Automatic annotation (TrEMBL):
One of its GO terms (molecular function) is transferase activity. It comes from the Bacteria. This is GNAT family protein. It is an enzyme of class 2 (transferase). Keywords: Acyltransferase, Transferase. The keyword Transcription does not apply. It holds the Pfam family Acetyltransf_3. InterPro entries: Acyl_CoA_acyltransferase, GNAT_dom, N-acetyltransferase. Its EC number is 2.-.-.-. Belongs to the acetyltransferase family. RimJ subfamily. CDD domains: NAT_SF. The lineage of its organism: Bacteria, Bacillati, Bacillota, Erysipelotrichia, Erysipelotrichales.
């Protein structure tokens, strides 16, 4: 196994701050994540994940060689979409290209399918992030289509590539 997914711990805050506080990482994520990312931001995130409903948000630290190097979560949708969930993840830049994220995605999806009634998991990386697209494809996700100009990041519209994995 290349990595371990596990519940967050308060003492993970410094590793979390270090792995996400990099524009190369943040340029692939939503704008909800501040930059610069302060230690208090990390504490706040961990507290939110520890207090979240475990049947609505499946949030894990990604640990590699004893250090938290990223984050992965699955967020259940609501209403008629309540049996589907959105996958989101990031990995610290110095850990890219090592197969860590593919292993984390596989572990996370397996966990969610085994411990919930969720039937489908989807993700929509930016079109300019082929590495994330490859991770999803390696994990059995199927490309569903293109959400044209669906994301607005760094002052520009970008297409997003929709992927899904069915239980």
């Amino acid at each position: 196994m290349t990595c371990l997914i596990r519940k967050w711990k308060r003492e993970d805050a410094q590793d979390l701050q270090q792995s996400i506080n990099d524009l190369r990482v943040l340029n692939n994520l939503t704008d909800r994540i501040p930059y610069p990312y302060h230690l208090q931001d990390a504490y706040d995130y961990i507290e939110a994940m520890l207090s979240a409903d475990e049947n609505e948000i499946f949030a894990f630290a990604i640990e590699y060689e004893g250090q938290v190097v990223g984050s992965i979560s699955v967020l259940r949708q609501d209403d008629i979409y309540r049996r589907s969930a959105e996958l989101g993840y990031y990995l610290g830049y110095s850990y890219w290209g090592k197969g860590i994220m593919s292993e984390a995605v596989k572990q996370t999806c397996q966990y969610v399918f085994e411990h919930s009634d969720i039937e489908s998991i989807f993700a929509a990386p930016f079109d300019y992030n082929p590495a994330s697209q490859r991770v999803l494809e390696k994990c059995g996700f199927e490309r569903e289509g293109i959400l044209r100009k669906n994301g607005f990041k760094n002052g520009e519209f970008h297409d997003m590539i929709m992927y899904s994995l069915i239980k």
